[in-house]
Specification:
By secondary structure, the protein is an alpha/beta fold. The protein has 2 domains: about 260 residues, Rossmann fold (3-Layer(aba) Sandwich), CATH 3.40.50.150; about 100 residues, Phenylalanyl-tRNA Synthetase, Chain B, domain 1 (2-Layer Sandwich), CATH 3.30.56. It is built from 13 helices and 15 strands. The radius of gyration is 22 Å and the shape is globular. The relative contact order is 0.09.
């Protein structure tokens, strides 16, 4: 197994920056004092983005649930930057042991200082290393020293770490991975997405969801190669970056079918989307077209086509967040709103993708009715519908575009009559 490992370098997003403020990511260079969920720390010049705190919140909640289920928790933070994630896993998730690794050894002092605020080094609950991400994971694998939770917060679409992370994870363990490649998810670099995740991605109106499915699909492929399979527990998109984060559980045994791993097509002509299995290759078409192969159909894949979230797991996360007093503490209930939206998206009747209201309005040549009114009308007609955590002005639904337009026009007529 080790002979087939990819040893291409996995770069940390936490590389030293020039002494200027980066407006696009709110990064401030220098040894800046920060506070997150009551935990004080210093950035030490490492890349730190305050907007990513929600992703860290979700990871800590998941890690804590893992400890409650198993009774112990070993965490590997493969690209730790200044160490705030590692510190939070120690303090809030009560990890028994955390490996805080970052390839840049100039961050060593600040990482140790931040971790020491939670637990003294002499307690032996953490260690700081400065190795390439694949190297540190494979070293622990070789020692048969596996982990319950591995967090790889990488930059871009570097997927070379996936196999190393999978083999270093215990069965039933959690893998929390990242992509920040919005160009590939938008279909602008299909050959790049093919190389990184094994998926040829074309432009689609719900490209940000495609980014999550592309990332999950890449892990599905690597797990299957090793004889395992994975289960997504939640999938989170954040506009800053953009950032695609997914939490996956590693399961024994390979699934001997291609369930939830296939192709997604969207028709430019009618706006509808379709799922295609492997045995439909060469026969893909849209029902709105009379030709056998629709010129208007854009197909991407293979991708993960199954559920993005596990509703029961998200409910447990929300309950824990309430116990910790995280809900309502910022006056916005943003974390509660996010998790509840993810639960709504978990409705098994909902297919992949979402419909943006401006896309529908453009096709219908009308001003779009309010989102809530549209959803209510869809529910009355027996369709499943929910808001999307990915895009505010969009609806996930099993309602076809033509019926969506018809419902919207009815509401417009009612409003003007």
């Amino acid at each position: 197994m080790l002979l087939s490992l990819s040893w291409s370098f996995t770069f940390s997003p936490h590389s030293p920056q020039k002494h200027s403020r980066c407006q696009c990511c709110n990064f401030v260079p220098g040894n800046v004092s920060q506070k997150e969920r009551g935990l004080e720390f210093n950035t030490g010049g490492a890349f730190y983005r305050q907007e990513s705190a929600t992703g860290r919140d979700l990871g800590v909640l998941a890690a804590s649930l893992q400890k409650k289920a198993n009774g112990s928790l070993r965490v590997l933070d493969a690209l730790c930057g200044c160490g705030i994630r590692s510190a939070r896993y120690l303090k809030e998730a009560e990890a028994d042991f955390v490996v805080a690794n970052d390839g840049n050894d100039s961050y060593g002092r600040i990482i140790e200082e931040n971790l020491s605020r939670v637990s003294a080094k002499e307690e032996g609950r953490w260690v700081v290393t400065h190795l390439e991400a694949n190297r540190v994971m494979t070293d622990y694998y070789m020692q048969k020293n596996l982990f319950d939770f591995i967090d790889v917060d990488s930059f871009g679409s570097d997927s070379s770490f996936l196999r190393s992370a999978i083999i270093t994870l215990k069965f039933g363990g959690l893998l929390y991975v990242t992509s920040t490649d919005g160009f590939s998810s938008g279909g602008h670099r299909p050959h790049h997405s093919l190389a990184a995740y094994g998926a040829y991605v074309r432009p689609m109106t719900y490209s940000n969801e495609i980014g999550l499915r592309m990332l999950i699909g890449g892990v599905v492929r690597e797990a299957a190669l090793l004889g395992y399979h994975i289960t997504p527990l939640f999938s989170y998109y954040a506009y800053h970056g953009p950032v695609f984060r997914v939490l996956l559980r590693l399961n024994r045994r390979k699934l001997h079918d291609s369930r939830h791993y296939g192709f997604i097509g969207q028709c430019d002509q009618c706006g509808n989307s379709h799922e295609f299995s492997w045995d439909q290759l060469g026969q893909m078409s849209c029902s709105c077209s009379v030709s056998k192969v629709s010129d208007s159909l854009k197909v991407s894949g293979p991708l993960w086509t199954g559920p993005l979230h596990d509703a029961a797991y998200l409910t447990d996360m929300l309950d824990l967040a309430k116990q910790w007093g995280w809900i309502g503490c910022d006056g916005k209930d943003s974390l509660e709103k996010l998790i509840k939206l993810m639960v709504d998206e978990s409705d098994p009747r909902l297919p992949f993708g979402y419909i943006k209201l401006d896309e529908m309005a453009s096709r219908a040549k009308i001003n779009s009715p309010p989102l809530r009114a549209l959803m209510s009308a869809m529910h009355e007609k027996g369709y499943a519908a929910s808001r999307s955590h990915i895009t505010a002005n969009a609806i996930k639904t099993n309602c076809p575009m033509t019926e969506f337009i018809s419902i919207a026009k009815e509401l417009v007529l009612i409003s003007v009559s």
